[in-house]
Write a structure and sequence with these properties.
This is Reverse transcriptase domain-containing protein. The protein is mainly α. The chain is built from ten helices and no strands.
Length: about 170
Amino acid sequence: MESMFHISNCAVENQVKFATCTFLGNALTWWNSYMKTVTQDVAYAMDWKALKKMMTVKYCLRGEIKKLEIELWKLKVKGTDVASYTLRFQEFALMCGRMFHEESDEVEKYVGGLPDMIQGNVMSYQPKTMEKAIEFANDQMDQKILTIAERQAEQKRKLEFNAGNN
């Protein structure tokens, strides 16, 4: 939703109206019920943060969020698939926002889930933002994969050369 606000240049004072116009099904019924308890002016005067908190209380059960937080703490890169790890990490981070008081906390957790072969390099880079951490982690993994592929090609050439000499 916040991306939609940004893309559409939605003014801050119109964010709640914009967001609630996208509601469907149960969310729309819930919003219409809320609108009956307050005036339209009061409902649309609240800020996006307040609406988001109301929706979280209504639709994000505490136990379910706790399960997601546990999964996030256990999340690690599988093999060399940094892209899938990054996507999953960002999904969890959105739902578990209270875990990270500062962006530096989120960056630290993200880097902690990277494979050992690049984790040290990313840590030493000391990224200040998630964007920089993700970009550098991807660059480092690409370099490692390229290096591994080059070594394998070199070994194959040596084996083929030795086999040809025998």
